[in-house]
Amino acid sequence: MPYEPGSPACRVLIDCKSQVESMMVALAKIDNAEHIREQLVSVHNQLEGLHALHRRDPV
Question: Would you say the pTM of this structure is higher than 0.70?
Fold first, then answer.
């Protein structure tokens, strides 16, 4: 069963998290990019936190 987002904001957050994940995978192939990947992990975690807020209290 496909995942159904609860709101348009959730869909945007899910898409953004997916794009960040893709960037992290791509950057894993490049030397000396670990610091950028760490920043992307931080961004992903922030997006996840915002997504959790929207899942709990959709506006």
Answer: yes
Residue with tokens 């945007």: 12
Residues 7-38: tens digit of each pLDDT? 888 899 999 999 999 999 999 999 999 999 99
Q: Are 7 and 54 in contact (CB under 8 A)?
A: yes
Segment (H or E) for 55: helix 34-56
| AA letter at 19 | Q
The Cα 37–Cα 20 span in angstroms is 9
Q: One-letter amino acid identity for 41?
A: V
43, two tokens:
């961004």
| Cα(1)–Cα(43) distance, integer angstroms | 28
**Where do the domains of the chain lie?**
8-56
